[in-house]
Amino acid sequence: MGIGIRIEHLRKVYDTPPPSAAGGRGFSFGPTRSGGRKEKKKIEVLAVDDVSLEIPAGEIFGLLGPNGAGKSTTIGILTTRTEPTGGRAFIGEFDVWKQQVKAKRLIGVVPQRPNLDFALTTREVLLFHGAYFGQSARERVRRADEQLEKFKLTDRADQMVRELSGGLMQRLSIARAMMHDPEVLFLDEPSAGLDPQTRLMLWDIIRGYGNLGKTIVLTTHYMDEADTLCQRLAIIDHGKIIAEGTPQALKSSIPGGYLLRLRFDRATEELLAELRGLPGVTEVKSADPTAADVYADRGGPLIGPIVNAAQAAGIEVRDVHIQEPSLENLFLHHTGRSLRE
């Protein structure tokens, strides 16, 4: 049958200051009381804002967004690491925060940063994880050998974890998460820091695991990763879902599809009006007095008319960048900024 995920009106507010602020000296974060004591400034960060999602069993689902968008916090709630401020989350039939033990038995988790035990060997990491999930000695030895082979770690089996490179640690983290054959696999920025060859190997492993009917949720800020792996995805920013659907459907929802990012010595209202009237142009946005984003059903053929319109207005064209339909364009259209900003 497989196990799906359901999220209902999830909300998370952090009310403690960042560590860098909490430990600072010589800075005042609020008015001082009599006697020289300082009042602590209450800090509230809304990390997840009324998120609802339904992920059916067997789907590879992606959360795409920039750093700080709320992706990791959402994963943290689903994996019992972060307690929500409001809303509910379910792994299968189990409420994550009311039935934590039952939910944990169904999931495997790859955190954003490896949290491996440096005092163990590569093989021991896998064996200890299998024992934690109740596998017999024979079963965990068999599974460990399979994982070492799958992730090309067999020649590192007896090497201490502290001696591994960052990329090898990431491979081992993913192998460990899959050691007990979880029904739901969470991967938080799984390919961060990996070389291109290892990244492609990881993608193949994720696809293969999904083909077994497993549910996979990954967070990423790489458009190509989301486009290649995910059957559906949600684009998240400032804790809110701004778009959801298949990668193809999301790209098709952009007005015109193509995006021409233009830079002028000045972008007057008269010029913007001229650009909006060009054949094939569906939308023109300008958040900068020297720039314009033109959404259209074509790319290169519009450059000539754009240059002509600028010259007729006595305006200099300084740069033209054409982007084909992409998830990056979708994010730009909804937020006015790049996923990498």
User: What would the CATH topology of the largest domain be?
Assistant: Rossmann fold
Beta-strand residue percentage:
25-35%
Rg estimate, integer Å: 25 Å
- Determine the mean pLDDT: 88
**Tally of helical segments:** 12
Q: What is the CA-CA span between the terminal residues?
A: 41 Å
CATH class of the largest domain: Alpha Beta
Cα shape: elongated
What order do the helices and strands come in, and which of them pair?
Elements: E1 5-14, H1 19-22, E2 45-55, E3 60-64, H2 71-78, E4 86-91, E5 94-95, H3 100-104, E6 107-110, H4 122-132, H5 137-150, H6 166-177, E7 184-188, H7 196-211, E8 215-220, H8 223-229, E9 232-237, E10 240-245, H9 247-252, E11 258-264, H10 269-276, E12 281-285, E13 291-296, H11 303-312, E14 317-323, H12 327-335
Parallel strand pairs: 3-8, 3-9, 6-7, 7-8
Antiparallel strand pairs: 1-2, 1-4, 4-5, 9-10, 11-13, 11-14, 12-13
Helix pairs in contact: 4-5, 4-6
Characterization of this structure:
- With 341 residues, this protein is α/β, with parallel strands linked by helices.
- The protein folds into two domains: 5-24 and 42-250, Rossmann fold (3-Layer(aba) Sandwich); 255-324, Alpha-Beta Plaits (2-Layer Sandwich), CATH 3.30.70.
- Helix content is 32%, strand content 25%.
- The protein contains twelve helices and 14 strands.
- It has helices spanning 19-22, 71-78, 100-104, 122-132, 137-150, 166-177, 196-211, 223-229, 247-252, 269-276, 303-312, 327-335, and strands at residues 5-14, 45-55, 60-64, 86-91, 94-95, 107-110, 184-188, 215-220, 232-237, 240-245, 258-264, 281-285, 291-296, 317-323.
- The chain has a six-stranded mixed sheet, sandwiched between helices. The chain has a four-stranded antiparallel sheet with strand order 2-1-4-5. It has a four-stranded antiparallel sheet with strand order 12-13-11-14, with helices on one face.
- Helix 4 packs across helix 5 (137-150) and helix 4 packs parallel to helix 6.
- The longest helix has 16 residues, at 196-211.
- The protein is elongated and about 80 Å long.
- The two termini are 41 Å apart.
- Mean pLDDT is 88; it is low at 17-34.
